[in-house]
Every structure is written in structure tokens, then in C-alpha cells.
Design brief:
Length: 377
């Protein structure tokens, strides 16, 4: 049976079956994936490379790694491709085997899951709602005295908060001195802050691993493609523990092409930023909802009426709109949900339905905070 504590957004099939909705009647705001992919020629690339599916893919992804190397100006020996950045999260936990690791909360819970599967114990640093879930490097440093690793998502999912490159370099210096591994997940950084990546710093560090993803920014969630950047010793050790042929041939071909398309990347970034600001502005004017400023292509929203996030998710799903109920994030209650920015017409539809549901619709007087999940203030 699937563990609901580890469920994610983007489960369109479940909604199709549960409510009898055809795929073209569903707007998915629950998964933070770019909808601006028309100019990327992804379907054409798939067709051009279909013959490759009859052969084993390159287990070392050499051509893809060379393209990533050129894109980041980092040596190929410092790069490891993976079946999505999530595979590399689990591989990092298996390779480093920390007995205890610091995890900011709320955040992507696959860090905790990967750590526990490897026999490690999480130490949570709760981001405070009263402080806008802000991140503070000195606070993180103060909490590392009894851990062997630190997991950070930047921008953080689901809060959208962000640490600058200068702030993170300070953290890297500390983790290097204390021989603490730092796993930095930059899956959303391309949406707004590509120049703030620490990818160029990772090869010079012993214990820094920077994770990047094609999934979100390029909208290829079904193909699964990501990569890690780190010191030569760490990358070699991870590669030695990695399953063979994890990255399929189509994913490799598409990844190579996408990184050559800088003009389309710029347009995606501009569109995502503009639509996130539009959504934030509309939500800020809506009675009963409190959005948090976006630093990526998604927005965390608090419900300030009697309705719970689960009830809101169900009400919207019946109307073909999917949102991410954040009640199962450690550190959040059933008063939070997350939405991704999409195209203007779709965003306007979301705002219209939210306004009807939250301001003029049903409330759930019996909703209550999920025990053990809310961060202390």
C-alpha cells in the first residue's frame, strides 16, 4: 500500500479515474513543471532518436556529460548524470551514509526518506512561519555540530525561500572545515537565479554535491533526467555504487539538445517569473488566502478560513484543477497548499475557481492541524 506521507503532486491519473475527467479537462498546478516547452522541439527530438530504444544507452552518458560540462564550464570528471535528481538524492545518501543529517523543514521529503532507508537519522531545523519560513545561514551553521551531512533545497520546496551564492559559500567553508557533507538541491534554480548556482564551486570542495534537474524547468517529468556536480573523489564513489543504464537513450538525446537552446531557456525564465508575479498579486488580493513571495515557479499559500487544504484540494479536483496539498510536509499543517505558475489563461482560471471556493464556498469547521507536523513558532 502506498504511504500517503510520501505522496507527491502531479498524479493526474488518480484524478482522471476518481472524478471521471478526461485528460484535456485537467489543469495541473500541483507539480511545479514548466508549461512553456513548445519551442524546445522535444517531440521532434524523440522522433529523431526513436531507433535508439533498440540498443542499450551509454551507461556513462558521455555525450550528455560533455554537454553539461560545456554548459557549466565544469570538467566532465566532476559530473554524474542520473535518472532524475531524486535518484541522485538516494545515491548520495547511500554513498555518504551519514548517521545523522540536518534537514530544513518544511522541504522536499525525499531527503528524509533517503536518509532513513540508509539507516540515518534526521535532525530537523524548523523554518518558522512567523518569520516567513526564511532561511538563515548562521542558524544552519549553529545546528551542524552533531551531524555528518546537511540537505538544502535552494530555492526551497515548498516555501520558495532562497539563499544567495555568497551565503552558501559561507556554509560550504564551514562544512569543509568540519568535514560535513552538503547536498545542495538546485532543481528550481534555473527559473530565476541561474547565476547563483554553486556548480562551479563543487569541484573544488571535498564534500559538496550540487544536484540539478531537467524535470522542472524543461517540463520533461516523464523522462527522468538530472545530474550531480561534485569533487572527483565523490563523483567516482557515487558512480561506483550507481546502477547501470539508469538514464535512457531518449533522455540523454533530449538533455543534450535542451542545453544548447539558450534562447528558449531565457524565454521560459521570463514567462515563469512574470506568471509567478501575476499569481502572487492576485492571491494577495484574495480574502482568506496568504501567499508567500515566490523565488521560483511555485507559490506556497496559507488558508486563513475554516477550510482545510485537503478539502480545498478535493473541491478543486472535482472541477479539474489540481493543487498540492502541503499537509503531509513535516513542518506544515493542513492549512497550506502549493501551486505552480502556468500560462496566463490557466492561471486566470485557477484564480477564478479559488475565489469562488474560498471566498464564497464551503468551509470546514472541523479541520484541525495534523498532529506532529507543525513547526514550533
Amino acid at each position: 500500500m502506498k504511504d500517503k506521507a510520501y505522496s507527491h503532486g502531479g498524479n493526474r491519473r488518480e484524478v482522471e479515474e476518481r472524478y471521471g475527467l478526461p485528460p484535456n479537462k485537467i489543469l495541473d498546478f500541483s507539480a511545479s513543471i514548466s508549461p512553456w516547452t513548445d519551442s524546445l522541439r522535444i517531440e521532434e527530438i524523440v522522433k529523431d532518436n526513436l531507433e535508439s530504444i533498440y540498443h542499450y544507452p551509454d551507461p556513462e552518458c558521455r555525450e550528455l556529460v560533455r554537454q553539461i560540462s560545456q554548459y557549466l564550464a565544469v570538467d566532465t570528471e566532476n559530473i554524474l548524470a542520473g535518472n532524475g535528481s531524486t535518484e541522485l538524492i538516494y545515491l548520495a545518501a547511500r554513498t555518504l551514509s551519514p548517521r545523522r543529517a540536518l534537514i530544513l523543514s518544511p522541504t522536499f521529503f525525499e531527503y528524509e526518506r533517503a536518509l532513513r532507508i540508509g539507516g540515518g537519522e534526521p535532525k530537523f531545523l524548523f523554518l518558522r512561519e512567523s518569520q516567513g519560513f526564511s532561511l538563515n545561514v548562521q542558524t544552519i551553521i549553529d545546528e551542524t555540530k552533531d551531524v555528518e551531512a546537511v540537505f538544502i533545497c535552494n530555492p526551497n520546496n515548498p516555501t520558495g525561500t532562497f539563499l544567495t551564492k555568497d551565503e552558501l559559500i559561507e556554509l560550504v567553508k564551514m562544512t569543509e572545515e568540519r568535514k560535513i557533507a552538503l547536498i545542495l538541491d538546485e532543481s528550481y534554480i534555473d527559473f530565476k537565479y541561474p547565476g547563483e548556482t554553486l556548480a562551479s564551486e563543487a569541484p573544488k570542495a571535498h564534500s559538496l554535491l550540487v544536484l540539478r534537474s531537467f524535470t522542472k524547468f524543461f517540463g520533461i517529468a516523464g523522462l527522468r533526467l538530472g545530474y550531480g556536480v561534485g569533487g572527483t573523489h565523490l563523483i567516482e564513489k557515487m558512480a561506483g555504487l550507481k546502477e547501470p543504464w539508469a538514464v535512457n537513450s531518449l533522455a540523454q538525446a533530449i538533455g543534450i539538445s535542451l542545453l544548447r537552446n539558450e534562447e528558449s531557456m531565457k524565454k521560459i525564465r521570463e514567462a515563469a517569473s512574470g506568471e509567478s508575479e501575476f499569481l502572487f498579486g492576485e492571491l494577495s488580493r484574495m480574502r482568506g488566502l496568504k501567499p508567500y513571495p515566490p523565488e521560483a515557479n511555485f507559490i506556497l499559500v496559507k488558508i486563513e478560513t475554516g477550510i482545510s487544504s485537503m478539502k480545498l484540494r478535493e473541491d478543486l479536483a472535482r472541477r479539474g484543477i489540481l493543487i498540492r496539498d502541503c499537509g503531509n510536509f513535516t513542518g506544515l499543517s493542513d492549512k497550506f497548499f502549493r501551486i505552480a505558475s502556468r500560462k496566463r489563461e490557466e492561471n486566470s482560471r485557477l484564480i477564478e475557481v479559488l475565489r469562488e471556493t474560498v471566498q464564497g464556498g464551503s468551509e470546514d469547521p472541523g479541520s484541525s492541524r495534523r498532529e506532529g507536523t507543525h513547526a514550533p513558532d
